[in-house]
Write a structure and sequence with these properties.
By secondary structure, this protein is an alpha+beta fold. It is built from twelve helices and ten strands. The protein binds glutamine.
Length: about 300
């Protein structure tokens, strides 16, 4: 398979395409990003690395970080985790408050904000230094010790993060948050501020494409059952109220972030990350989705 040629075709075809969306601006720092940025990195288990555009430039991974924190919480808590967060697609926007009320403070899944905030609460309860431990985990699975938080982005989100404050307070009132609100949000804003490139994200997500084993050294990090579950959640809940559309167009488990990144995996074949900051109305990268649709169509490798 001529993967580099396929990526070049994707870049060429997308360069003619008009976008209709906007860069995220509710986090002031994200509004400063150049909307024309575009990068993509494909990491194939059998044949290595392919990339186009700004694939080595770091951006704010935002909600993609929810996969890392979920992984850590699963490792710490095992089955009891699912008493506090459900595993159903939400069909609602990522920052919705309404669903929480009629579901008594149990978030639909760990990838909407409410669910990720419960996961943050769990990590704050169970780890002495959750921010350090998260960095350590991400650095380990990426094989890159330089990955770090972008403190300007974290501070920027804190200054306007009213909805996330609302979600945590509401769940605390309903008994599903154990710690004080501040340390949970401090951790959450930091996890979302992680700065990574497409290349680094594809490297990190090879873990999920490769059955929980680090491809670089063969170390088994996650049980087969947990990888299956995380990938299933990415498939059904990774794109909020656009999870169906992403399955329909792309056909891979994946996760998006409002920084314009999307990462997706083909179990046993490849991991791929794409970045283009212009978002569609559901908060997913417009060109990112288009690029991945072309990738699975041109290679014939979706999971369906
Ligand atoms: N930090 C963002 C928020 O909480 C993450 C949202 C996202 O990437 N979808 O709103």
């Amino acid at each position: 398979m001529e993967y580099q040629k396929i990526l070049n075709t994707i870049q060429e075809e997308l360069s003619y395409r008009n976008t209709t969306g906007k860069v995220a601006s509710y986090i002031p720092e994200l509004a400063k990003v150049d909307p024309k940025k575009f990068g993509m990195h494909l990491y194939c288990r059998d044949s290595g690395h392919y990339s186009i555009g700004d694939s080595k430039e770091k951006f704010s991974i935002q909600s993609i970080s929810k996969v890392f924190t979920l992984t850590m919480a699963m490792q710490l808590l095992g089955e009891s985790l699912w008493e506090r967060v459900d595993v159903e697609p939400s069909g609602d926007p990522f920052n919705s408050l309404t669903q929480l009320e009629y579901e008594q403070g149990i978030p639909r899944n760990p990838f909407i904000n409410a669910g990720a905030l419960v996961i943050a609460d769990i990590l704050v309860s169970n780890l002495k230094n959750p921010k350090t431990d998260l960095l350590e985990f991400v650095r380990k699975i990426t094989g890159n010790q330089e990955i770090d938080y972008d403190l300007t982005v974290a501070t920027s989100e804190k200054s306007t993060g009213y909805r996330n404050y609302g979600l945590v307070n509401y769940m605390k009132a309903l008994g599903n948050i154990k710690n004080d609100v501040e340390p949970i949000l401090d951790f959450y804003f930091h996890q979302c501020s992680l700065a990574m490139s497409c290349e680094e994200l594809a490297n990190a997500f090879m873990l999920y494409a490769n059955g929980g084993i680090l491809l670089e050294n063969g170390e088994k990090i996650l049980s087969t059952k947990r990888v299956k579950r995380i990938n299933a959640l990415m498939q059904t809940c990774g794109f909020y109220d656009e999870a169906g559309e992403f399955s329909f167009e792309v056909g891979l488990p994946g996760k998006s972030g409002v920084g314009g990144g999307i990462v997706a995996i083909h179990p046993s074949k490849y991991s791929v990350a794409v970045w283009s900051p212009i978002l569609n109305p559901k908060g997913n990268s417009e060109l990112g989705m288009a690029a991945l649709e072309k990738l699975t169509t041109l290679t014939g490798f979706s999971i369906f």
